[in-house]
């Protein structure tokens, strides 16, 4: 089985993935949150940090681009290739209203003929490995048949499928019936993504799809960073390891952020996932959320680790 960390904008940053890699199951691939190519504009500071090979040493990182303009994709992909990357990913999944209104992310799926031309262009002009991360359509699962036909025309490095529609956002359940048809119809190596939170979720999935050998997890792996360890070798989450992992991320954000507010913003976002691994933690989570100073935050976190057990079975 190949294991991939899903991109979660502003959560699975280089700081997160390096700390993850230090303490938990090293993954086959780490996808960066999306980068929007801008014509005639260099990478901004955040993007430079995210892509710097120094910050991704020893990790197989796949930068992800979000655009519907082939020229922008090509120019930026070449810059990324020059930095030493061998592979790039196209985001056809982002459901956010502003992105979709511009015909990007899962909004691009509503324009299959344009998408076809876009793929023709990028695959003929680039030598890099290019993978695609897609939803199954914008408003109807029936859209996926045409999309699969289009994907089948090009040499995708792999096809990562999050079987939801744009209109689902993160609601409803992944559509496993359509994913099954994708397994039958696609000529590409498929990676499954969506709602794997526990070993049982994974086991159920792999019983239904024994031929799928790649799995990507996002929210489940941020909530329980030992999820992949548990799937791969039954290893449970250890609270001391989780504390060290947290402390590394916290220290690293302090080093790179300007001001306590920015550090706290990042840490609170991380806790909105991590908290799901603890029992009886509501009171401490409230304190974390309310903290406006690092000292108050540290006290809340230390109380939480001292008083809240990890959920059973994780
Ligand atoms: C807060 C958040 C940010 C996300 N950012 C990205 C992104 O930058 N690129 C992308 O392809 N998907 C993004 N996604 C989607 C995830 O990569 C993934 O496809 C989705 O969460 C389903 O997988 P999961 O159930 O394992 O989390 C994001 C999801 C969330 C919740």
What does the model show?
It is built from 14 helices and eight strands. With 314 residues, the chain is of the alpha/beta class. The mean pLDDT is 97. α1 (14-23) packs antiparallel against α11 (239-256). Helices cover 47% and strands 12% of the residues. An eight-stranded parallel barrel has the order 1-2-3-4-5-6-7-8. The chain starts with a strand and ends in a 7-residue tail after the last helix. The longest helix is centred in the C-terminal third of the chain and has 18 residues, at 239-256. The chain binds flavin mononucleotide.
Topology of helices and strands:
Blueprint: E1 2-5, H1 14-23, E2 29-35, H2 45-51, E3 61-65, H3 70-82, E4 87-92, H4 97-101, H5 112-125, E5 129-134, H6 143-152, E6 159-161, H7 176-185, E7 190-193, H8 199-208, E8 214-217, H9 219-223, H10 227-233, H11 239-256, H12 260-274, H13 282-290, H14 294-307
Parallel strand pairs: 1-2, 1-8, 2-3, 3-4, 4-5, 5-6, 6-7, 7-8
The chain binds flavin mononucleotide.
Jot down its keywords.
14 helices; 314 residues; 8 strands; alpha/beta; 8-stranded parallel barrel; 12% strand; globular
């Amino acid at each position: 089985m190949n294991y991939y960390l899903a991109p979660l904008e502003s959560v699975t940053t280089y700081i997160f993935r390096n700390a993850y890699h230090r303490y938990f199951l090293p993954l086959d691939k780490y996808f960066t949150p999306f980068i929007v190519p801008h014509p005639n504009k260099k990478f901004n500071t955040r993007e430079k940090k995210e892509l710097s090979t120094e910050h991704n040493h020893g990790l197989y990182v796949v930068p992800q681009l979000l655009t519907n303009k082939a020229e922008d994709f090509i120019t930026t992909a070449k810059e990324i290739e020059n930095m030493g990357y061998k592979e790039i990913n196209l985001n056809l999944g982002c459901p956010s209203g502003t992105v979709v209104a511009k015909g990007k992310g899962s909004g691009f799926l509503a324009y299959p003929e344009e998408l076809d031309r876009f793929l023709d262009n990028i695959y003929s002009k680039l030598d890099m490995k290019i993978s695609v991360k897609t939803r199954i359509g914008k408003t109807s699962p029936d859209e996926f048949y045409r999309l699969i036909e289009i994907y089948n025309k090009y040499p995708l490095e792999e096809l990562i499928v999050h079987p939801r529609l744009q209109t689902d956002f993160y609601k409803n359940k992944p559509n496993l019936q359509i994913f099954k048809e994708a397994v039958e119809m696609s000529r590409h190596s498929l990676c499954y993504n969506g709602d794997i939170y526990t070993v049982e979720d994974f086991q159920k999935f792999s019983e239904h799809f024994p031929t799928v050998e790649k799995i990507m997890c996002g929210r489940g792996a941020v909530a329980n960073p030992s999820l992949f360890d548990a799937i791969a070798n039954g290893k449970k989450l250890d609270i001391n390891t989780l504390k060290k992992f947290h402390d590394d991320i916290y220290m690293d954000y302090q080093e790179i952020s300007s001001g306590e507010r920015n550090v706290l913003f990042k840490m609170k976002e991380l806790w909105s996932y991590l908290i799901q691994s603890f029992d009886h933690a509501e009171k401490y989570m409230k304190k974390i959320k309310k903290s406006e100073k690092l000292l108050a935050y540290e006290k809340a976190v230390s109380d939480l680790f001292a008083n809240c057990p990890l959920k059973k079975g994780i």
